[in-house]
Amino acid sequence: MLLGFLHWMGYGLCHQLPQRSFFGGGVQVPVCARDTGIYLGFALSFAILAIIHSGQRPRGFPTTPAWILMGLFLAVMGWDGVSSYAGLRTTTNDLRLITGLGVGFSAAAVVYPMLQDELWRQQTQDRVLSPLWRLLVWLSCIPLSFLFIRFVAPSLGVAYPVVVAGGILVTLTSINLVMVAMLPAFDRRGEGLRDVVLPLGIAFAGAVAEIVGSGYLRLVLERLVGRLG
């Protein structure tokens, strides 16, 4: 049952090729190495941002240096993916993981201030990843996350793919929450954690629906291709 759950978590989101994926306890993680980096990177970055901005609700987007770094992370991942698929060069799961982490970390740095601005009645005017020390702490966590995911997480056994599944849910729920929080009933209405339970629940339900729906869509497309073939 657990194996089926883990497989379905990434079935509609990723190709799930074994040679491009990591394993924990002999169990393949739900998504490939690059997507593992993206989803775990998002979840880790979100947690790190909450820690380094403790006591704040920064509504401002990152500063220009941070945007440059994030743009670079996206460009490097794009180059690694496109050039390898085009046959211009070969890549590795390590490169897929580290480039995915950069993009996952960056995505959270964009979503985090959006949620602060939309969810809470009172926010602070601070910019996320500002001042410089916050950017440096956040940046240093990317290689540390790579080392942990690559060399420590596999020793956790089946807990590793379960954590990756959790990262998928955190990422999709957070992105959905940006849209849910725009609804008039929730827009800047929150004063405490209790006030965000309902919009969070709606966003989570949406994430589950997206995972299930994308899985069934892939299933239908594969059957259709099989019949045409």
Break the fold down into its secondary structure elements and pairings.
Elements: H1 2-11, E1 23-24, E2 27-28, H2 33-52, E3 58-60, H3 64-85, H4 93-119, E4 124-127, H5 132-152, H6 159-180, H7 197-228
Order of helices and strands: HEEHEHHEHHH
Shape: globular
- Radius of gyration, in Å, reads 18 Å
How big a fraction of the residues is strand? under 5%
What are the low-pLDDT stretches, counting only 5+ consecutive residues below 50? Answer: none
- Distance between the first and last residues' Cα: 31 Å
Helix content: 55-70%
How many distinct beta strands?
4
User: How many individual helices?
Assistant: 7
Can you list the strand order of the major beta sheet?
Answer: 1-2
Annotation keywords:
single chain; 229 residues; mainly alpha; two-stranded antiparallel ribbon; two-stranded parallel sheet; 7 helices
In brief, what are we looking at here?
The chain has 229 residues and is mainly alpha-helical. It is built from seven helices and four strands. Helix content is 67%, strand content 5%.
